[in-house]
Amino acid sequence: MNTLRKFYIFKESDETENKVYLSGELDLFAAPELAATVETLVADEDRALVLDLRELKYIDSTGIGILVSMLKARAGMKRPFHIQHIPNHIRRLLDLTGVGRYLTGSFNTNTQLKREESL
To answer: 66-78, pLDDT tens digit by residue?
Structure first.
């Protein structure tokens, strides 16, 4: 069977942040790859975690669930988590599902943590 890969992950790290670029379609089939890739990055307390979604074309409920799980883990650690460059069609879906307001900006202050707890 000849299948084309539809999801790509690129990572880069420096002294202050781990940055993850997502490209393509984040769906049920790609979600385990993302979860495995970010597991150690989410647990890294020494660096901010940044997701760049500028090249993300599609996300389903499984992918959204992983983003929420990352948010909750980072909030529980009281460590920074940022999502950058969310395409309009992805932002609209996140807003329609009610999680968009939790998945933008930095999540390392008490006020934002209290907002996150209501998920």
So the answer is: 999 999 999 999 9
Domain around 86: 7-103
Quote the number of domains for the chain. Answer: 1
Query: What CATH number has the domain bearing residue 26?
Result: 3.30.750.24
Q: 58 Cβ partners below 8 Å, 6+ apart?
A: 24, 25, 26, 27
Please state at what angle helix 110-117 crosses helix 61-77, rounded to 10 degrees.
Answer: 140
**Cα–Cα distance for residue pair 42/68, rounded to 1 Å:** 12
118, 106, 37: which is closest to 78 by C-alpha? 106
Provide the whole-model pTM. Answer: 0.82
For residue 92, which amino acid is it?
R
| Residue 1 counted as domain residue | no
